[in-house]
Amino acid sequence: MKATEIIGKDVVTLDGGKVGKILDLIIDDNWIVRGLLLRLTREAAKAASMRFTFRPTGVVEASLVKGVSDYVTLVIDFDSLGDAIKKA
Question: Which CATH number characterizes residue 27's domain?
Fold first, then answer.
């Protein structure tokens, strides 16, 4: 799958909670995707205890991705989201 096919997809939790949209991929020196840079929803930013700004962003580790189809599903539920999102 190409990066351009992933960027812009919606990200949801296992229980269907909307997390946000993928803005970019975080890639290490060995060309391995390590994380996803997201534009967070208001609810996701609140769950991560982030002050809501005009366009809040956060990073989720790639290891938390369960699958990619029309949207990206994470292996966690919305209640666990606060620990999974890191500040961008």
Answer: 2.30.30.240
